Task: structure prediction
Amino acid sequence: MAKKLTSAILLVEGGRQDADLVYTSGFSAPDPVVLLVNGRRKSLVVSLLEFGRAKAEARVSEVLTPQLLGLEGVARNRLSQWAIAVVKRARLRTVRVSANFPVMIADQLREAGIRVEVSSGPLFPNRRQKSPAEIKEITKTQRAAVAAMRAAMEWIRSADRDRRGYLQQDGKRLTSERVRRLIEQRLLESDCAADETIVAGGCQGAEPHERGHGPLRTGQPIVIDIFPRHKQSGYCGDITRTVVHGQPTPEVARMLTAVKAAHGAALKAVRPGVAVKTIHGTAQETLLQYGFETTVKNGWGEGFIHSTGHGIGLEIHEAPSINLSSTRLMLGDVITIEPGLYYRRWGGVRIEDTVVVTREGAKILARCPYP
Amino acid sequence: MAKKLTSAILLVEGGRQDADLVYTSGFSAPDPVVLLVNGRRKSLVVSLLEFGRAKAEARVSEVLTPQLLGLEGVARNRLSQWAIAVVKRARLRTVRVSANFPVMIADQLREAGIRVEVSSGPLFPNRRQKSPAEIKEITKTQRAAVAAMRAAMEWIRSADRDRRGYLQQDGKRLTSERVRRLIEQRLLESDCAADETIVAGGCQGAEPHERGHGPLRTGQPIVIDIFPRHKQSGYCGDITRTVVHGQPTPEVARMLTAVKAAHGAALKAVRPGVAVKTIHGTAQETLLQYGFETTVKNGWGEGFIHSTGHGIGLEIHEAPSINLSSTRLMLGDVITIEPGLYYRRWGGVRIEDTVVVTREGAKILARCPYP
Result:
């Protein structure tokens, strides 16, 4: 096992969501790059057109290009050749890669006589435990999410209703699309982007990942889930509220009460050392106590059909998942707590906050009222 | 070769950029899903919480869940088990996967006795040739990009300059950040998102992928590169203009003239059947004729240091790359034409349009003035 822990790590990543690359080097690029982490030595290989930016921005020991690696002709354009060249240059015979490493490059490394250890867990386990600086960045994004949520809640609260029960703002029907745009404009003002924002009214909310569309009505639950990424830092935030304009139906009122109770109970269960299944179990039991059962029939699930939460950082979903596993929370984990209930007849209810695990338990990063 | 072409295709994708999945099934999800394309039969495996949405939205023959595949316990949470189960259910012994397929799942398929053919080219070569409906969607995104570009150009054009040459709007310094926010707000109004937008003034523009930061000055080249994605359709657009407030220096004026000429010459070279290297060569030669050489020294490249363009569709960069290869253009290719010059002393100049390849040559999808 000692050998596994000391293998050099090879990353081939690119695009905006290259969390391991950003975490290790502070660098990201629209096109793929190769990074070899050999103990403390980090060698980054980039194309010619990223060289200057990488020299200026990347926290690495050296920045290389295919040219500097001595590659010629078509090999200069082949990421697998970059990878083989940088590994051979370091005289390594084994590298460790992530489970998602591209199979073609892995196969070509193997053909070149390099052993490829595929990591089933995270390549950088320390990424889970957030530093004070990282918590500050996540909080910054979360504050932007809360500001956008407050604006959306106020817009829905202050809406008029027409004779048919549809919400109106500025003389026009209030739709999921309009609320989403308001939210995303607010996020942009804080330099945050959200490619997907959920504003799902009525039965649409019964699908946890339905974005929502069309006019919103009074008396219906409206699930608003905002999960932006800060454009500079790359750190994410995540918050959900379920609002009702006017009076909810008795069923939805009961769902709201139950989910709020499950959310509170799960939050209370958060502390360093606790198994995530204890937190998930607490949320499940609370919902059951309120009479809400989870059923699966022919593929359709109703009730509490997802985990209680997930880690969050440079990725919107990262370790640990707050599910049935025995993983234990640790100081510095940043996680969401987001129980929910989904019934096709009534719609969805979900309440979510993002918290950091402290010695005193869960600390909510940015407070937002529960309507 | 016939066998290769008829192998079933296995996708394990997730996230917003899952272009093959969206292309084949019309479905996307924030978490990974498995899709098996076996001739005309498409089997999609999703988690319980995506089942209803997948049933409603995915253009597939069947939607499965781990439960419906008969998986029990921890296997239900393992994508590799979903993949093995759906392949075995179809009684297949070979599957074809993309070069980027996750190595861990590929290895586990192999251990389960399934042959994994790794495709070096695209899994769905037809994705390159855009249908009229796709061209319409790309045009829609491109029009939003042009509207945002016009707003940004007008904002810079109408700016005042202070005594030190810094641009001013509304009594405040005009910065890259302010122009970028204006652009992204305009894009949002058209339901388009841009996680990265380049507004790079002066020497910053010498790095092709530098986003740009800080105050903008008169007399400097400012590279503005807008590449949004439509939030509904997922189709991308891409446009670049280089603007100068006031008088450019003689060097920058020469660069602007040369790049505009290279852009025009490359556009003229576009037609079905032409090798992409002919187009790239045309751009290179034109820039040389204007006296601009490309040099590489110790990793630093100056001059024309990237390809002339790239295919664009559900991905911002897709096939074909307009580089030194012998690939030939075909009717329905949608590509960018974007020659540029980069010198650390003077900054960057790039001009880019997105065009569709028609019988008559390049047709610009949305026109925008060249300042």
Remarks:
- Chain B touches chain A through 60 residues (CB under 8 Å).
